[in-house]
Amino acid sequence: MGYRQVVIRKSDKLHLKEEQLIVQKEDVETKIPLEDINFILIEDNTTLVTTKLLAELGKFGICFIVCDDKYEPSSIMYPYNYHFKQLENIEFQLQMSEDLKGQVWQEIVKAKLQNEVSVLLKTSKEEKVIAKIREYVKEVEPKDTTNREGLAAKMYFRSLFGSQFIRFYDDAINAALNYTYQIIESSIIRTLSVYGLISYLGINHKSKVNNFNLVYDLIEPYRAIADLYVYNLQERLSYPLPFTVRKELINILNIPVMSNGKKCTLEYSIDNLVRSYVKYLVNKEGELSFPKLIE
Fold this sequence. Notes:
Blueprint: E1 4-8, E2 13-17, E3 20-25, E4 28-33, E5 37-42, E6 48-49, H1 51-59, E7 63-67, E8 73-77, H2 86-94, H3 98-122, H4 127-139, H5 148-161, H6 172-194, H7 213-218, H8 220-231, H9 243-250, E9 256-259, E10 262-265, H10 266-283
Helix pairs in contact: 3-4, 3-5, 3-8, 4-5, 6-8, 6-9, 6-10
């Protein structure tokens, strides 16, 4: 699996030559080995892309992300039939009981709330909010039937970004949060495909019109990490997001986090999490490798 994120802001053509991505702009060609790439994000809606390149991206397990006119990711091409035991892993997904899903969702919510506490300890340091979310961590039930996740979110975001902050408004902070979440989601989609899992077979998210239910489940522990990343950039944010900021937001996949008790990149922690989820599906028990902020 590659390690480089390639962002195409402006080019004339993307094509393939000797297992290398060729980025052509006027008379200049830039060559990048496909084996080094984990995903390509293209913002320019006039660039020509050859189908031969697209086919080869699938073979190398590379995600191809296309942005709309607002520079927000709008579509994604990810590897198909990449894993050698894909049917077996899909069967494990289909056999997952509701009780087991409830237990897994309980652990996901706990991991998310624990990361939210870690973020607030580094930022607002509001003792009452931190103490309350810590209580919620202990109170999370299977399937989070008492909605501790939602209750925590109301306090958490206002503590982090101020009492006037409202999630999903059209402003710079929300745009940066959405963009960063989408970058992480794209990496999760790619990794699920690599491990032969179907992204629409979720744990808690079960929408019949959502192809990425499992992605929205597994991203939850990562959201607080993304929130802190955006928090540290907020003085440089403007709406719409400038290219320099978008480029830096993409780099979140390279930031260090803790996973399995070791420091690694956020992207590598996604591989750990998905791999541990596959083991959980097979054994019907175990520990999921959730990411944690570095203290």
